[in-house]
Amino acid sequence: MKSAESDEVSSGSSRDTHRKWRTEFLSRLRTAGLHQETVVQGKTKTTYVLLSAPWNVLCYYAEEISVRVPLQAVTTPISIWSEKILEKLHIPNIMAQDVPNLPPDYYTCQFRSNKLERFLGHENKDTFFKTTQRHQILYEILARTPYGSLKRGEVGIGRLVSEHVLTAAFPLHETPVDPQSLNMRQILHHYWARWACWRKYQPLDHIREYFGEKIALYFAWLGKTEHTFNLYQDIKHVNMFNLVSIIFFCLLFDNGGTVFFSIFMSLWAVTFLEYWKRTSSILSHRWDCSEFEEIEERPRPEFTALAPMTVRNPVTGAEEPYFPETQRLSRTLTGNMVIILMIAIVLIFLIAIILYRTILSIIIYRSQNGFFIFSAGRIASLTGSMLNLLVILLLSRLYTYLAQILTRWEMHRTQTKYEDAFILKVFIFQFVNFYSSPVYIAFFKGRFVGYPGKYNTLLGIRNEDCGASGCLIELAQELLVIMVGKQVISNIQEFVLPKLKAWWHRRKLKPAPSQEVIDEPDSEPGLSPWEANYQLLVCEGLFDEYLEMVLQFGFITIFVAACPLAPLFALINNWVEVRLDAQKFVCEYRRPVVERAQDIGIWLTILKFISYLAVITNAFLIAFTSDFLPRLFYRYTTGSMRGYVNFTLSVAPANYTQSHMTCRYRGLKDDKGQPTQDYYHLLAIRLSFVIIFEHVVLLIGRIIDWMVPDIPEEVEIKVKREHYMAKEALAENQASFLETIIDGCNCYEKIY
Question: Transmembrane segments in this chain: where (predicted)?
Answer without folding.
Answer: 243-276, 338-359, 379-402, 422-443, 550-572, 600-624, 679-700
